[in-house]
Design a protein that fits this description.
The complex is a heterodimer. Chain A is mainly alpha-helical. Chain A has eleven helices and two strands, in the order H-E-E-H-H-H-H-H-H-H-H-H-H. Chain B has one domain: Orthogonal Bundle (MetI-like fold), CATH 1.10.3720.10. The chains are: A mainly alpha, B mainly alpha.
Chain lengths: 329, 307
């Protein structure tokens, strides 16, 4: 009996949350729900509670060490980007040329960079830029990409063809190159031009995923049924299609968040992203590279922080994908 | 097959036009093409107006674009503001970047596929976990960090290589930059090969090959590898375009005078002709590489037939 439950959960996960009609333990039809009760890799769940793809995924995630570690790292990053002064009280712009390139010493564990700024303070304060760019750009890309992709996938026809060609065009332009061209003429010294640029070049990726996902979901029986009952386009898209098509978008967006952070640092390293006196790991790495012989520590600390941040987000994306993609179980 | 190629070539036209127009607009609308001509100072209005008329910059943008594209197809990429022909810059820059890209592809093929096969055949063992973790780290560390760290270690600390590449860029000096350029794609190739091998290992034809008593080596190389490499080959093919466009960072770190270097200089000095010309060629390379990959699909996998 419990073996059967195990199977039916998989079926629910494959076809999506809302649509499958499954025979519950008591023999009644329970649409949109897998039967509660024993089964699943994580031991018995509370009997009779509805179990969706999301609660299944959450149960998987809580037991995944990769998710826990990357989640803790990300929580820490978010905290220090909100309140950097909590662990680094000095100002990142307070520099003393007399101490330039000096190594680690009491009160300054990471030493000083080429301008005599405290590397520890700058590394801690640099987190804010990276997290802000990553989160805002991902939100922008996800909203713009999934709306355009979902509309194209749902309505098809001319708009679909136009969207496909437009995404082709954006894919043909190398990202770093586009960034150099667009951002080199902008003199503003905030994170917004960088975020805007990433959204501009990043949305086609999400749009493709969302389009494919919507096309798959819209052929399901429950969408046909809802349409037959006279549901409007808006209701179909928002209530029936979106909840079941959003999983791939979330996975790709989480992994993309890490790559956007890396992209911001790369652009700042090339001198077109953020510019001093902004504090960003990319700027610090770029500034430290000429002194690589005498003061490698000024290069290593921001590089390490950047690498760990990107790694944390990519690992989180990996874990989320494993949890949401039932084929891999 | 012939009809498919023609259709694909026709489909390339709007993408090519769109991508080049986008870059053309970015360069011409966002920046001021004649700003770089008067050095550090601003041009005085009379000179600026004369220069605009001379270069046809007073005409509407779409007309400028059409004129430019017309010239490009007769082989005239224009003249950079220092008087050098853009084609001349290309003839020195593209061979260097091409060599760099080839080395990067070689690394992807040799290291990436080997690691992928080894881990795919030993799924779940320590080797597999180790390599998988390693690829995750390589993907996460941005290329410019990998490049700077390797330059610091191999070039400065241990003195194995020259930290920067001379202007002729011989093959042996390009080895480390090639590895850095390849690093992220290499990790992807490893993961792709691993998944593909692990998937095909359970397929019927492999079981048949094993059952009829073929030696393991032959099963792996002739049966398993051949079928598993189809997605890998297509990935590597599509990567050619990305690598050439992504070489900006690598070329900057190792001071290689290739396409990325010229583009970077062109953008900093607002050298419109150089930037648009180089990007046009890069977009073309990208599109042709993708077309070749799609055609390769049919050659590698006889189940796929284009009509």
């Amino acid at each position: 009996m419990s073996e059967q439950h195990y199977e039916s959960e998989r079926v629910v996960a494959v076809t999506g949350v809302g649509g499958t009609v499954d025979l519950g333990t008591d023999g009644t039809e329970t649409p949109a729900k897998a039967p509660g009760g024993p089964g699943g890799p994580g031991g018995p769940g509370p009997r009779g509670r509805p179990r969706s793809l999301w609660s299944d995924a959450w149960r998987d995630l809580r037991r995944n060490p990769v998710f826990i570690v990357s989640g803790l790292v990300i929580c820490f990053l978010v905290l220090i980007s909100l309140w950097p002064s909590a662990i680094a009280s000095g100002s990142p712009l307070e520099c003393d040329l007399a101490k330039a390139q000096e190594g680690s010493q009491a009160g300054h564990p990471f030493g000083f960079d080429g301008q005599g700024c405290d590397v520890y303070t700058r590394t801690v304060h640099g987190a804010r830029t990276s997290v802000a760019v990553g989160v805002c750009a991902t939100l922008g890309v996800a909203v713009l990409g999934s709306v355009l992709g979902a509309l194209a996938g749902y309505f098809g026809g001319v708009w679909d063809a136009v969207l496909s060609r437009v995404t082709d065009v954006f894919f043909a332009i190398p990202v770093v190159l586009g960034g150099l061209v667009l951002l080199s003429v902008i003199t503003s010294n905030t994170v917004w031009p960088v975020i805007g640029f990433i959204v501009l070049l990043g949305w086609p990726q999400i749009a493709r995923i969302a389009r494919g996902s919507v096309i798959t979901v819209k052929q399901n029986d429950y969408v046909q049924a809802a349409r037959a009952l006279g549901a409007s386009h808006t209701r179909l898209l928002l209530r029936h299609i979106a909840p079941n098509a959003v999983a791939p978008v979330i996975v790709v967006a989480t992994i993309a968040l890490g790559t956007y952070i890396a992209l911001e640092a790369t652009l700042s390293y090339l001198g077109v992203g953020l510019k001093p006196p902004s504090v960003s790991w990319g700027i610090d790495i770029s500034a430290a590279s000429p002194y690589i012989r005498n003061a490698p520590h000024a290069l290593l600390w921001p590089s390490g922080a950047l690498a760990i941040t990107v790694l944390a987000f990519i690992m989180l994306g990996d874990a989320v994908r494993d949890a949401l993609d039932p084929k891999l179980r | 097959m012939g009809r498919y190629v023609v259709r694909r070539l026709l489909q390339m036209i709007p993408v090519f036009a769109g991508a080049t127009l986008l870059i053309f607009l970015m360069v011409n609308v966002m920046g001021d093409p004649i700003a770089g001509l008067c050095g550090e100072r601003r041009c005085d209005p009379a000179t600026a107006a004369r220069l605009r008329a001379e270069f046809g910059l007073d005409k509407p943008v779409w007309q400028q674009y059409l004129t430019y594209m017309g010239n490009v197809f007769t082989g005239d990429f224009g003249t950079a503001f220092n008087g050098q022909e853009v084609t001349e810059l290309m003839s020195t820059a593209f061979p260097v970047t091409l060599r760099l890209t080839l080395i990067a592809i070689l690394f992807e093929v040799v290291i990436g596929i080997t690691l992928g096969v080894v881990t795919g055949l030993r799924r779940g063992r320590p080797v597999d976990t180790g390599v998988l973790l390693f690829t995750l780290v390589v993907i996460s560390v941005p290329t410019f960090v990998t490049g700077l760290l390797l330059q610091l270690l191999l070039g400065v600390k241990w003195g194995w290589i020259r930290p920067s590449v001379s202007s002729e860029a011989p093959l042996d000096e390009l080895l480390l930059p090639g590895l850095v350029l390849a690093s992220v794609s290499l990790a992807y190739v490893t993961r792709l090969t691993r998944t593909s091998i692990a998937e095909n290992r359970r397929s019927d034809y492999v079981r048949t090959a094993v059952a009829k008593g073929l030696p393991r080596r032959r099963v792996v190389t002739r049966h398993l590898l051949r079928n598993s490499l189809i997605p890998v080959v297509t990935f590597i093919g599509a990567d050619v375009g990305f690598l050439m466009g992504g070489a900006i960072v690598t070329e900057r770190i190792f001071n290689i005078h290739g396409v990325g270097y010229q583009l970077y200089q062109g953008i900093l000095r607002q050298n419109t002709q150089t930037v648009v010309g180089f990007v046009t060629v890069l977009v073309l390379v990208f599109l042709v590489a993708n077309l070749v990959v799609d055609l390769l699909y049919a050659v590698l996998d006889p189940r796929i037939r284009y009509v």
